[in-house]
């Protein structure tokens, strides 16, 4: 069911009317009758519907309209399969459609202090490039927790699955259509956000999970549960994967890409649905999503590492949940199944750095860091080892390498966090499948916006306290490039300051929990494993 603290229902006054480049829009005033009122404009088109001949084409600017367009409700969710743990009432109430390139603007009604307007936060949702929508992140919760702190917030949608990542390797179909959609939405923000009292030159991009792929190539950013250096961010076999998946649907590639795409345009939209994953898929021991971006020479003219090195350093926040791998660790829960997956995870991380004959010994050395030898037959010990290693494979190792790189280069403020707080009720039916409950994937964005991602649950007083703190740190960063806020303000963290990592303290991070304090060591096991991997690489180099 829809939570009224997340998605507003019922009658609300109309918002002010705003003239965009394409026409006038009118939304709702979701917070009204108080000192700080907030308007919401939902379902604004930023591109033409990508249907018919525009399926598998780059996004096109929307058609202008006459009169006033009502933007008072979320657009339909992007075409996608069903997540098995999703509330059936939610999927019934919010259907999917190929016509889904819309965004939402939430904006304060009072006059900004700066003549340029309020700072802007653009949120790009995650979902393994397969599922999710802007709806799940709410409207009234964003108005309360983000906009009332003097920030304009924009949430966007983009094509998902095969519709967003179809690849032929030639000009029959542009690669990375989902990323072009995101770029078109950001272009719309640049051209129109001033009309909503936003500053087009002060935009922070925030992404979570799959939504992080684009953000660190643009401006000041907040990356939750990954970044563009993580293994899942690029799909190395997307062309082959597309042909294989379409062959499963009865469309066989016969050597002519244009004929292949024309045949695909005749299929119904739901023919492209891919079941959402409930655990990590692996290819050669590494995380591999069902679909994803590829280095195409156009959107990505070079490998991501080269592109990042060529861009000027940007202030950013990066981090993940304390038990990030928990959500990707699903039954069967047996010692043998957990041991097999842990061995696969570690072998995948090290096999390119050691000779095949040394993989087993090195793998076993690392397993000893994860599993107490005295508890080797303990199911709980192996479950926790699997969760840890899944987190390492998914984002811990690559994210911490990114943080260490930032500390060594010293060119950009990098604020590192571990989100360790959770409410045991926040997982819903999914919690019954988990090995144990802890702060996992999606916990950080839940409390950043005050939404409910994994399941509906009632916020406690402590939940709201964490949301107030976390959303304030984020909006401070959006406004000042510093989560602590301007100099002279009372510290938010019991007198402490959340400072960027440094070469002397590359592990320094904010641990968001009941106490929320700055700590100097991030997951000692992960740190040891990084050192182990790096020593392996060094030894291999010497041997060669």
UniProtKB/TrEMBL annotation:
Domain of life the protein comes from: Eukaryota
InterPro entries found in the cross-reference section: AB_hydrolase_fold, CarbesteraseB
Membrane-crossing segments per the record: none
Name of the protein in question: Carboxylesterase type B domain-containing protein
Organism: Diploscapter pachys
Signal sequence, start to end: none
Carboxylesterase type B domain: residues covered: 15-518
